[in-house]
Specification:
Elements (H helix, E strand, L loop, with lengths): L3 E4 L3 E5 L6 E6 L4 E2 L11 E3 L9 E3 L7 E4 L3 E6 L3 E3 L2 E3 L1 E10 L2 E10 L7 E10 L12 E6 L3 E3 L17 E6 L3 E10 L4 E8 L6 E8 L24 E8 L8 E3 L2 E8 L2 H15 L9 H5 L2 E6 L14 H9 L5 E5 L22 H13 L3 E7 L2 E3 L3 H5 L24 H4 L7 E3 L5 H16 L4 E5 L19 H20 L4 E4 L23 H5 L6 E4 L5 H10 L2 E4 L1 H4 L9 H16 L1 H5 L2 E3 L4 E4 L8 E7 L6 E7 L5 E8 L6 E6 L2 E7 L2 E5 L3 E7 L1
Parallel strand pairs: 23-24, 23-31, 24-25, 25-28, 28-29, 30-31
Antiparallel strand pairs: 1-2, 2-3, 3-4, 5-6, 5-13, 7-8, 8-11, 9-10, 11-12, 12-21, 12-22, 13-20, 14-15, 14-17, 16-19, 17-18, 18-22, 19-20, 26-27, 32-34, 33-36, 34-35, 35-40, 36-39, 37-38, 37-40
Length: 702
């Protein structure tokens, strides 16, 4: 029988006429066949748990295709029930819709579940038989980029590795969204060919899902360099290749219908950078991004001071009556934004969700007076809060909040955690408070949070930081709205939106930061925590306005500050591991350095902080700096004027000479030079300087 074929000027895709498996996906522009080993061809897989067999999978490639509809750019494949496996027949029908849309191929899956079982998992499209991009000479140079906030690049076609080695016969990688993936896409790319393949889920629903890669028939764990099967280790009858698919956890009830997300497969020129552009274009066409110039947090907050006023073990570092002195310590060092952490009953990461002042620190009136004093010295104040955690030791939890906990399919609470700080046993994780995770899909959880946040706005708070803002994968709590894969995720977005609307009724400029690298949070804030260490961020490359912060909590962390400058990060300044202010004597030299950094970045804010970080940078560099392992460079462009600024940093412990020849588009004339503890000066190009250890210089187009 002839294959079922769909094609346009960009690609062609073939399906087996008997079972509907994907047997070919050909890139016409690159001359690349993706399904290089068609014996591993596949299509979909469903999980229908039985009482005595939770792992009751139904393989799509073992089902007979019953109906085909096709036109020039659309193909509909249908497998009418019953579907079968070794345990029996199931009254389930599956429809896969494939559309050629310019360079992209899209897949949708619909499942009608007429059984008395839940549809727990749906895998599709399963693309089996991948050997990389290109022919035998180059295809094993194909790399995988996974879209977490850092960007996780690995060469799975040479060294596959694995994240999961229990219960599955094949080594496999599992990457779930919205955590740890920040964005639901990955990319296969071959730099030698200059060609890549974008593999993504374009979904307007906030739901838990992921991408899987497995290596058939297995790997050579422990081998040097290459863990794929070697020639001669498998016979000609055994296929070898990677199997890739997206998966959902719908838990569709009996009689229900599952509508999956749109899975996009698109060949493209270049590498993962082009894939990031494809995703950004789709995302911004569906979801709004906050305007970075309309939020004081993103527009103005290049640095903030953060202190835990009380630890969960009761250790007090700052009281409310001391807020004016504490805020003045930051302001005197060029930092005009402060975060009050550990202010609530129970202290930092204790007593949640009791977001009211702990009596050991002071009263509501004293907190309000402290905030007012900050405003009088032109310092903005935001407070540390959470949506999800609940302290299991408090009466409120025992009497009510336990009913809102995230539950697994068997009704058990599974998401307890905690952090200790004030004693050795607590820091070892032995004696810290236990925090249970409540699900934001439960309306009462959202109401509790929003009500308490409004009170903060009413006493003058300029905003809040929501910590641990990464919901749990699946929540089976019957009180949660939406299915298990959507409840906590959609509930969190609804909670954040309602909180901002409510607080902005009191203060129209009330702002938010979040401990989250989830792309959907960008509709509410682009300010977050925990910038990657000594590496760029894929999240920031995709969404340039996204602003993580580097933590500066030890007195000699000059290079942490330097990295924030050359990458455009914010500075989270927490002297003494967040127990002191910037006036701490041990922190004084670094505090003075931060003050100089603030001076320079405030003058160049539109370029170094609000501008675009260019990757790869295009500047002319010579001298020892060009080849040093301790040299770092960041190139920024002012989004409004086009003016460029280059940050050069020497992270080493010896002076480093550099010759700056200029910008690619401007290699003559003069530049302005900015350095800590020195006035701005104008120099002619080329400019030669010997950079001191652990220092930076900024060169700005004149």
């Amino acid at each position: 029988m002839m294959a079922i074929r769909l094609e346009n000027d960009f690609c062609g895709i073939d399906f087996d006429p008997v079972n509907g498996a994907v047997t070919s996906l050909f890139d016409k522009a690159g001359g690349i066949e993706l399904i290089a080993e068609p014996r591993l061809a596949d299509n979909f897989r469903l999980l229908l748990p039985l009482p005595d067999l939770h792992g009751n999978y139904v393989e799509g490639k073992e089902q007979r295709l019953t109906h085909v509809e096709e036109d020039e750019a659309h193909l509909t494949l249908r497998w009418d029930g019953p579907l079968t496996n070794a345990r029996g027949d199931y009254d389930v029908s599956v429809t896969m819709t494939i559309v050629l849309s310019a360079p992209a191929v899209t897949f949708r899956l619909e499942v009608e579940n007429r059984t008395d079982l839940e549809l727990a998992e749906a895998w599709y499209p399963i693309l089996g038989g991948l050997l990389g991009l290109g022919d035998e000479r180059v295809r094993r140079d194909t790399c995988l980029m996974v879209a977490n906030d850092l960007g996780d690049e690995r060469n799975v076609f040479r060294r596959f590795g694995a994240t999961n080695e229990l219960g599955t016969p094949l080594p496999e990688w599992l990457f779930t969204y919205p955590t740890p993936l920040s964005m639901p896409w990955c990319d296969l790319f071959n730099r030698r060919l200059g060609r890549g393949l974008y593999f993504a889920s374009h979904d307007t629903l906030a739901r838990f899902k992921g991408v899987r890669l497995a290596l058939y028939p297995g790997s050579g764990r422990g081998r040097v360099n290459d863990d794929w099967p070697r020639p001669g280790e498998v016979d000609a009858a055994t296929p070898v290749g990677v199997i890739a698919n997206w998966f959902h956890f719908p838990y569709t009830p009996p009689g229900g219908r599952f509508d999956g997300s749109t899975i996009v497969v698109q060949f493209h020129d270049g590498d993962w950078r082009q894939a990031a552009a494809v995703y950004r274009e789709w995302f911004t066409s569906r979801f709004p991004l906050v305007d970075p110039r309309k939020s004081w947090m993103r527009r103005d907050m290049t640095a903030f001071q953060d202190t835990m006023f009380m630890l969960p073990e009761g250790n007090v570092t700052v009281t409310f009556s001391e807020i004016p002195r504490w805020a003045r310590d930051a302001r005197n060092h060029g930092v005009r934004h402060v975060l009050i952490s550990g202010w609530n009953v129970g202290g930092h990461d204790g007593g949640y969700p009791q977001y009211e002042p702990d009596p050991r620190l002071g009263t509501w009136e004293e907190l309000e007076t402290g905030i007012r004093a900050c405003h009088e010295m032109d310092v903005k104040v935001f407070l540390f809060v959470n949506i999800h955690p609940a302290d299991t030791a408090i009466d409120w939890y025992k009497n009510e909040l336990h009913r809102y906990a995230v539950l697994n399919p068997w009704g058990d609470r599974t998401a307890a955690t905690g952090w200790g700080m004030g004693t050795l046993g607590a820091r070892l994780g032995l004696t810290h408070p236990t925090l249970e995770r409540m699900g934001a899909g439960v309306p009462q959880v959202r109401d509790i949070f929003v009500r308490q946040m409004r009170r903060l706005a009413e006493i003058g708070a300029d905003g809040v930081h929501i910590d641990k803002c990464h919901p749990f994968g699946l929540d089976f709590n019957p009180l949660a709205e939406g299915g298990p894969d959507r409840a906590d995720w959609e509930g969190t977005l609804r909670c954040v939106e309602t909180m901002l609307d409510t607080c902005r009724e009191v203060n129209p400029e009330f702002s938010l930061s979040a401990e989250s690298a989830w792309d959907r949070i960008l509709s509410y804030t682009d300010v977050t925590w925990w910038a990657p260490i000594d590496r760029p961020s894929l999240m920031k490359f995709t969404f340039p306005q996204w602003l993580p912060a580097r933590a500066v909590n030890q007195p000699f962390a000059y290079n942490v500050v330097n990295e924030a400058v050359y990458r455009g990060w914010g500075l989270l300044v927490g002297p003494g591991n967040y127990t002191a202010s910037m006036a701490d004597p041990l922190f004084a030299p670094l505090a003075a350095y931060i003050k100089e950094v603030q001076r320079i970045r405030q003058e160049l804010k539109d370029t170094l902080f609000l501008g675009e970080l260019l990757d790869p940078p295009s500047v002319l560099i010579e001298g020892p700096f060009a080849g040093s392992e301790y040299a770092r460079l960041g190139l920024f462009r002012n989004s409004e004027t086009g003016q460029c600024a280059c940050v050069l940093a020497n992270l080493g412990d010896e002076p480093l000479e550099t010759v700056f020849g200029g910008f690619d588009a401007n290699a003559s004339g003069c530049v302005y030079v900015y350095q800590p503890f020195e006035p701005r000066r104008e120099v002619k190009l080329p400019f030669t300087t010997k950079m001191a250890p652990e220092r930076f210089v900024v060169l700005v187009e004149r």
